[in-house]
Amino acid sequence: MSLKDEDESCVQAMLFATTYVFPMALKAAIELNLFDIMAEAGDSAYISPLEIASRLPTRNPNAASLVDRMLRLFASHSLLSFTLRTLEDDSVERLYGLTPTSRFFLKSDDGSLASMFAVTYHRATIEIWLNLKDAVVLEGVDHFQRVHGTNMFEYMEKDPTFNKAFNEGMVAFSIITMKKIMDIYKGFEGLASSVLVYKIQKP
Length: 203
Description:
Blueprint: H1 3-17, H2 21-31, H3 34-39, H4 49-53, H5 63-76, E1 80-86, E2 92-98, H6 113-120, H7 123-130, H8 132-137, H9 143-148, H10 152-158, H11 160-184
Antiparallel strand pairs: 1-2
């Protein structure tokens, strides 16, 4: 293996080792409503981290710098777009804008992937992934029940935050999915209304 190939393999391995950084940063951005703040600036607007930080309930003097680092990460994955602006003192600041992808995380009556993200990265869900090894090595018990001592539906009765996140996530997913189906499938044309009926079978 050449030195160049070894370096590229090392960089790729480092990316795998730090993959959790992106979803954790995205989780924080959603909880801070960063994308919604950007959307309020206008459809095609670019906004600075300082402007965004000024609209957050924070006393941290480094908030703008931290926001910039998060948004720069998203821009490197094309979740956001960015441009540069030269200031009067000849310094340069980054401005960030929404992309069609990031708009799926905006709060919306048409469904938001932010709701799905909330259940995917809820503490109850994360703890399952942290114990994934046991699901492979051990057998005979549902993995959720092994980690939490009860099945998912009974757990939701004990943890209202997970219950809320799960239900809102499923509603958002259903809205987004059915909207796409309705855009393509024309069999419902002419109907005044339609009703989606489903049943969750408890184990």
